[in-house]
Amino acid sequence: MPHKPVALDHVNIFxxxxxxxxxxxxxIFGLHTQDMLTSPATGKLRAAFLACDxxxxxxxxxxxxxxxxxxxxxxxxxxxxxxxxMGTLEDLAEMYERLRARDIPFSVxxxxxxIGIYFSDPDGNGLEAxxxxxxxxxxxxxxxxxxxxxxxxxxxxxxxxxxxxxxxARS
Length: 171
What we know:
Helix content is 18%, strand content 27%. The protein is α/β, with parallel strands linked by helices and 171 residues long.
C-alpha cells in the first residue's frame, strides 16, 4: 500500500449563499454541476459539488453557512488561495478576458515557470487561474527560488505585468 497520496484532489469551502456561489463558479470557470443538496424543510440549496471533468466526482464543494458569516481575513492563518490550472496559455487569456468583461478585480504574476491571475470569489475566497510550462521547459531544478527569465508568457496581461510588483511582494 502506498504511503503517500496520489494527488491533492478537491477543496470544500464555506460560502454565504450557495445559490449565488454555484452560479458564479459555473459562469466564471464553466464547471459541471455533479450534485446539489437542498434543505428538506425549505428546498433551498445548501451545497453544490462542481467538477472540471464530468467524469470526476468533484473538484470543489460549496457549503452554505449563511449571509452573516464573516469572510476570510488578510494575514490570518488558513487557506491563501485555490489554484485552477488551465490547459493552455490561450485558455488563461480567455479567463483574463472573462474576468475583465465582468469587472472582477484581479492581478497577474509571472512566476517564471508559470503565470497566474489572482482574484476572489463573491465571499472573498482567494483564487488563481494559471498556466504552467511543461517540466522540460522550466530550465531549472527549483521552480521558484532560482533566478529565471520572466516574460515567457505573452498575452493580454503584458501591460499589467509591467506595472505590477510580484504577487509575494503585495500585501
